[in-house]
Amino acid sequence: MAVGLEEPLLEIDEIQGNSLAGFNKDHQIFLFYKIVDPSLAKRWLRYWTPYVSTAREVLQFNRLYQMMWARRGEEPPGMMATWLNIAFSYEGLKLLTDDLVVFEDSEFKLGMKKRSGILGDPTGPAQEMHEGHAKNWLFGGERNPVDLVLIAAGDDRSRLIEWTDRIQASALQLPGAGPGTGGGIRLVFEQEGQVRPDLKGHEHFGFKDGISQPGIRGRVSEMPEEYLTARLIDPSDPHAALYAKPGQPLIWPGQFVLGYPQQKRDDSLRPKPPNVHMTGWVRNGSYLVIRRLRQDVAAFWEFVRREAQTSGIKPERLAALMVGRWPSGAPILRTPEKDDKLLAENDLVNNHFMYVENSSMVKLLPELAEDQFPQASGDPQAVLCPFSAHIRKTNPRDETSDSGSLSDSLVRRILRRGIPFGKSLPVDFETGITGGDPQEGNRGLMFVAYMTSIEMQFEFITQNWMNSKKEPKEGGHDPIVGQNYRNGRKREFDLMGREMVLDKEWVIPTGGEYFFQPSISVLRDVLAR
Ligand code: N7H
């Protein structure tokens, strides 16, 4: 296909694995460090650089795993891997190199703590007691800045812990390291994340996550049609030029990794060349946003139960309207009245809908089963799915807004790689009653996202859409993650013609930072040298 031939060859031996390929592991450990002695820290980095997983390694493992899974119909036993990626805050980079003119992203340079107010977090002296105030963060806050993060991921928890223990101990074993230097680095915070054992792939409120991801354009070998993202639409269907599979638009890789062609607002087929700032040593690197979001699961479902009683809408449906998907992941627009687990499991169907246009049959490759489920009707007046439902806020798809049209929503997309942390609290979706002890454990989401402009992507979604009552379409704040720094932090949400006041916050930022995840050669030849 002519368009495909023009897609760039991605340097997957240079790009770290969690961005383009995604670790996709049940267990992850995040180690946040402060650099106390740059030359010792460099030695330590030099030692670990060969262990940093590349996009090629992760991609090949994931493909083999999926291939075996598909043929056997069950998880291939004993097939395991342990992955590692490393990223740096701007302050961390400053300690390791002088060559920093290459960074044009001023938000990255400022760091998350200084942008906390822009993100809607509680700031200023009057809010100092609020858990979400940067003074109280567990890392990245005023008292606990971080210079680098290691993300380790694996299938087996005990092996992963063994591996991260080795990483930590290794710093002290370096020649020249002593008790005073801490081996060049000091651990600021450690967070373990894990896929929920009771509800795999679901976040703590109970909803399936990680369904909607951009289809990244680009090839991974010299072969003209070996794409990073599998193309599942028959080339005779015009959708094939724009979508990898139904509901997964193709986006130029320069939105996620620096140095590649970028998405244009007005033309999805022809990209914009990368600018000069993106081609220096930042090439093959990505900005990485990590935000530890504590979730108050009991408070969320208590609100849902209370509103269900007064509105007559059943708890499960009410919560689904706040998210835009049912707990199984089935989108409201494909099944407005009730959850449909079969639809949710079918990844050729579960993301195939728009907000304005009706969805229609797409011709798939001959070996794939056709979409048998009722198609989605467009919902331009938000009769079926509220304008402010979380997924409609964060990705308005074909809805026009003050910020632009369909292709504008494509330039805002991010690559989400988050994982839950903490012990689950079981929820009965029918009644909205939560079990367990809500006080026990501290649970939430390690929000992890890759992009090439923090301002235009993560901050734009947060500030202009999730935290706004009016954009992309008037209908209140995002009821899941939106924050309102005014009005006593109360949020408002229009649900089927009723204005709801959300007087409690159930997603609270408890730490975070903006990082840059460099290419393998920059890690080896610049930062570790
Ligand atoms: Fe969100 N949730 O449980 O409601 N998210 N999110 N998110 N989120 C999504 O479609 C959730 C957060 C996005 O393309 C789903 O893959 C929770 C932040 C985007 O249609 C669910 C938290 C930001 C999408 C959740 C949280 C985003 C998305 C449906 C915090 C950005 C894709 C699964 C604790 C700044 C939308 C899916 C699309 C989907 C939930 C955080 C963004 C269930 C609990 C901070 C872009």
Automatic annotation (TrEMBL):
<keyword id="KW-0479">Metal-binding</keyword>
<feature type="domain" description="Dyp-type peroxidase C-terminal">
    <location>
        <begin position="280"/>
        <end position="468"/>
    </location>
</feature>
<dbReference type="GO" id="GO:0004601">
    <property type="term" value="F:peroxidase activity"/>
</dbReference>
<dbReference type="Pfam" id="PF21105">
    <property type="entry name" value="DyP_N"/>
</dbReference>
<protein>
    <submittedName>
        <fullName>Dyp-type peroxidase</fullName>
    </submittedName>
</protein>
<comment type="similarity">
    <text>Belongs to the DyP-type peroxidase family.</text>
</comment>
<dbReference type="InterPro" id="IPR049509">
    <property type="entry name" value="DyP_N"/>
</dbReference>
<keyword id="KW-0575">Peroxidase</keyword>
<keyword id="KW-0560">Oxidoreductase</keyword>
<keyword id="KW-0408">Iron</keyword>
<keyword id="KW-0349">Heme</keyword>
<keyword id="KW-0732">Signal</keyword>
<dbReference type="InterPro" id="IPR048328">
    <property type="entry name" value="Dyp_perox_C"/>
</dbReference>
<dbReference type="InterPro" id="IPR011008">
    <property type="entry name" value="Dimeric_a/b-barrel"/>
</dbReference>
<dbReference type="InterPro" id="IPR006314">
    <property type="entry name" value="Dyp_peroxidase"/>
</dbReference>
<feature type="domain" description="DyP dimeric alpha+beta barrel">
    <location>
        <begin position="14"/>
        <end position="197"/>
    </location>
</feature>
<dbReference type="Pfam" id="PF20628">
    <property type="entry name" value="Dyp_perox_C"/>
</dbReference>
